[in-house]
Amino acid sequence: MEDQNILKMKKINQIIFTVALLVLPFLANAQFDGEFIKPRNGRFLLQNATIVTVTKGNIENGSVLISNGKIEAVGKNIPAGDAEVIDCTGYFIYPGLFDGGSRLGLVEVNSVPETQDYAEIGQVTPNMQALVAVNPNSVAIPVTRVSGVTTTLATPSGGLFPGTAALINLNGYTADQMYAGFKGVVLNFPSSARRSTWDRRSDEDIKKEAEKAEKTLNEIWERAVTFNQLKKADAALDYYPEMEQLAKVVAGELPLLVEVNAASDITLAIEWIQSKNVKAILTGVAEGWRVADKIAASKIPVITGPMLSIPTRNSDRFDAAYTNPGKMAKAGVKVVIRSNDAENTRNLPFNAGFAAAYGMGKEEALKAVTINAAEVFGVADRMGSIEQGKDATLFVSTGDPFETKTQIRHVFIDGYRVPMSNRHIKLYQEFLQRSPGLVEN
Amino acid sequence: MKKIIYIIAAILVMGWNSANSQTQKGSVLIKNATVLTVTKGILEDTDVLVENGIIKKIGKGLTASNVTTIDAKGKYVMPGIIDAHSHVALDAVNEGTAPITSEVRMADVIDPYDIGLYRALAGGVTVSHAMHGSANAIGGQNITLKHRYGSGNPDDLIMKDAARTIKFALGENPTRVHGRGNGIQPRSRMGVEAVIRNGFNDAIQYKKTWETYNNALKVKGATPVPPKYSERLQTLVDILDGKIIIHCHSYRADEIYMLINVCREFGITNIVFSHVNEGFKVAPELAAYTMGASVFADWWAYKFEVYYSTAFNAAILTQNGVITSINSDSGELIRHLYHEAGKAQRYGELTDEQTLALITINPAKQLGIADKVGSIEEGKQADLVIFNDHPLSVYAIPQMTFVDGVKYFDINEDPNDMRLRVAATESIEPIFLKEHDHKCMHGVDFFFTNFGRSLFDHEH
Fold first, then answer.
1. Which of A54, B28, B70, B427 is the most exposed place for a label (fewest CB within 10 A)?
2. For position A297, what pLDDT does the model report?
3. What's the average pLDDT block by block, 10 residues per block, for chain B (460 residues)?
4. Of A46, A111, A13, which Cα lies nearest the Cα of B171?
């Protein structure tokens, strides 16, 4: 009996050994390296890669020297000096990807109210700061950044003015360390669209609600204008944090992120923005393709997405959401792409891939998640491309980052080399060959 | 007499006509394509001849007369994509009135007008498993659909030669609806196990009662009182007798392991676990005792029971020998299952063949239709998709989709508006910003509302 067990064990060991041999090369190529567990900075030379600078073409067999959080040099034959050399032969270097709108860090488990920090109570809460609610230790952050998405616009949602969004880098232990230099006040423009296919309000009710919201919006705005005038005149003002924040928008210190999706609403929003002479960015813009020329003429930039969503109308062509960014870009609109996701913000590059496939083209889609975003957020002097002097926020991949087959090898954020690991990868490492395996009973 | 023959002949012709019109079957010759057979490798520069809905021949230099010929040079042909978990084309999803509702049939609520069918075809999906929702521990009987979009007759969509299947559900959904919502079992994962176990034991009793009655009938002159018929229990008997495949909504490793044990105890081997986010933790058990797992590519953290998930699930399961498929459970995702499958290459570097199997032959096995669809082989039903690029590339766009050799999607010929009918009440066409209809908890959505509105994307 004992012998039999030993025999059985031997056989199992043999099987495990064979399986291990089979998966060994596959393990070596996986997404993680497990070399280090915390981000570290220093001088790094990424050698012999194809550098996709985005703004200045591609450099074959090029190198990027990272030092003090910045890109110190880009080009060929850069001497390593005391820098740690990372061989990138056969690989590609891209600037870190921007997600133009995400709840990443603002929610941990979607259905658990205790972890939902993206929406406050009240219709007019522009003073709610997304940045203070971003959890730097969210499990979803390392899950996201190994995809090459390094920078997201943490966006609050909810009422008419739900709060102030903030651009964050996906590395750092405090909100200030993560902050990437842009804030904008969110306005949910009065909507004639249904929030979802579950929204069962009557057409009449939707219209009434939109009209009411529009009235409120204009009243609030007038109040903000007055508040700003009084403030400029150094009047003694009561503590009014909502108006303090909106006055900054009136004064042009902060842009307005205008969430708007239905075509007729987009037209109204453009007219409203122009009449108030406010610095604005349109977000959502699901039906932008229907009024692309109007948006282009207004010169208001657009953050749109996700592409991976259904057409807004049943009569629409099946690919309406895929083709939307391409159609707007062709009309001359400056387009940025967003996932509008939280835990799966890592799918941003695939959204860009679909936009590219359905009319936008690879080059324009890449811009939409790099330099266009940096320009729209006013941080293009520091981010959005691989250029000397810019922040060292970039990644190394085996190929086109929009392709699912491509592996991301290294990610740098502000010069910090971040670990290519996260909970998803650790679970893979633990469970690919579970021990003990099957125990017959 | 002659008259009668005429009448009989007329009836026969009519009968033949109606039988024939039930499912349209087509013939087509696809030339010079890269054929991704899934089961028999990749065939370059190859032709596929379809005759009357069946793949007649695969080879080079094929010819056929009186058949539409499509030059697919530079293009890829793959088997029609199969979605093992969908709620597209259903008028209702949940009968959330009892923890066991095995008497309910999704075949009764097919909506052939659902535009979601066409959108799925435009993503290369030819077969979907239209399922009951996840409100009940034992839900309703599902129906496997072929996407023959265009007919107003629900019957035309049913894949008649598919296996019978039923929905089970574990974890948060049944405990929320019945325990928290209605104050009855199950309120916990203990209760879910008990409800299912009690159901099976009731079914065994029920079967015995009928056996006793039937035996009593054999006694000459006996007049036994027949037992009361129960569709609910009879369906459970059919599960125990191996006539129905269970597709079980599940997430956590412990609950998956629980149902594996219950099934083993009752001698049930026809079980597929769906969603099964923590399936990777019990992969050896899934491989040994079940028909596999049907998973999401990367969904996690939308509720607590999926917080400890990994996008490497499909890869771990596949490497452990579990029959694995990737499903949509969504009217949005069903449109790009080829892309969802592709993510198993980002997360676990599966080969092209392993990855394509996730959306073709593997779901076919789980639905009991692998002898009919799921690969490009001679003699199989001609459900085919032509792509302009390799379907696992993010840049791939489906060009044409065939079901039974009939073309239901053509990117270059179809008009923009593909609705079959417009409701008279739809004076202003509604604009939807999100898709919520085709989901597991449809019909019990009041359990998901928070401050009077839904706050999240995924409610599975």
1. B427
2. 98
3. 61 49 88 98 98 98 96 98 97 96 98 97 98 97 98 97 98 96 96 98 98 96 96 98 98 98 98 98 98 98 97 98 97 97 98 98 98 98 98 98 98 96 74 73 54 41
4. A111
Helices (H), B226-304: 231-240, 253-265, 283-289
Strand boundaries in A261-305, DSSP class E? 280-284, 302-304
Amino acid at A436: P
Q: Structural domains in chain B?
A: 1-78+376-412 (2.30.40.10), 81-373+438-454 (3.20.20.140)
**What are the CA-CA distances from residue A5 to residues A9, A436, A437, B143, B441 (Å)?**
6, 16, 16, 46, 48
Beta strands in B213-328 (DSSP E): 244-250, 271-275, 293-295, 324-326
Q: Which domains does chain A have, with CATH numbers?
A: 31-95+389-441 (2.30.40.10), 97-383 (3.20.20.140)
> Chain A: residue nearest B453 by CA?
A199
- Residue A43, pLDDT > 80, answer yes
- A406: which 2 tokens? 């491509």
Cα B164–Cα B166–Cα B171 angle in degrees, nearest 5: 160
Q: Which two tokens stand for residue B31?
A: 């030339």
A429 inside 8 A of chain B by CB: no
Confidence of residue A34 (pLDDT cuts 50, 70, 90): low
- Residue A98: which of A344, A384, A305 has the closest Cα? A384
Q: Give the pLDDT of residue A199.
A: 82
Task: Find, among A150, A128, A149, A138, the residue nearest to A106 by Cα.
Answer: A138
Instruction: Give the closest residue to B159 by CA, choosing from B103, B93, B83, B231.
Output: B83
Please compute the mean of the pLDDT values over residues A326-350 and round it to a whole number.
98
What mean pLDDT is predicted for residues A173-187? 98
Residues of A in contact with B301 (CB under 8 A): 108-110, 139-140, 342-343
Q: How far apart are CA B341 and CA B212, in angstroms?
A: 51
Among partner residues B394, B416, B431, which is closest to A193 by beta-carbon distance?
Answer: B431
> B112 to chain A nearest CA, in Å?
14
Q: Any chain B CB within 8 A of the CB of A359?
A: no
Nearest-by-Cβ selection for B332 from A310, A313, A431: A310
Out of A196, A312, A403, closest to residue B394 by CB: A403
3-state helix vs strand vs coil in chain B, percent to 5:
35, 25, 45
Residue contact A318–B119, C-beta within 8 A: yes
Residues in chain B: 460
Distance CA B190, CA B258 (A): 10
Task: Answer whether B337's CB lies under 8 Å from B130's CB.
Answer: no
pLDDT at B427: 61
Measure A76 CA to nearest chain B CA, in Å: 30
Query: Which amino acid, one-letter code, is at A315?
Result: S
Residue A197, number of CB atoms within 10 A of its CB:
18
ipTM of this predicted structure: 0.92
How far is the alpha carbon of A58 from chain B, nearest alpha carbon, in Å? 21
* A12 has a pLDDT exceeding 70: no
Would the CB atoms of B303 and A192 count as touching at under 8 Å? Answer: no
| 3 state SS of B146 | strand
Q: Give the model's pLDDT for residue B6.
A: 64
The nearest CA of chain A is from the CA of B313 a distance in Å of 8
pLDDT at B222: 93
Q: By the CB < 8 Å criterion, does A287 face chain B?
A: yes
Query: According to the model, what pLDDT value does residue A202 have?
Result: 86
Nearest CA in chain B to A108: B301
pTM of the predicted model as reported, rounded to 2 decimal places: 0.92
| The pLDDT value given to residue A440 | 85
Q: Which residue has the tokens 């008009």?
A: B415
What pLDDT is recorded for position A21? 46
Q: Which residue of B has its CA nearest to A27?
A: B348
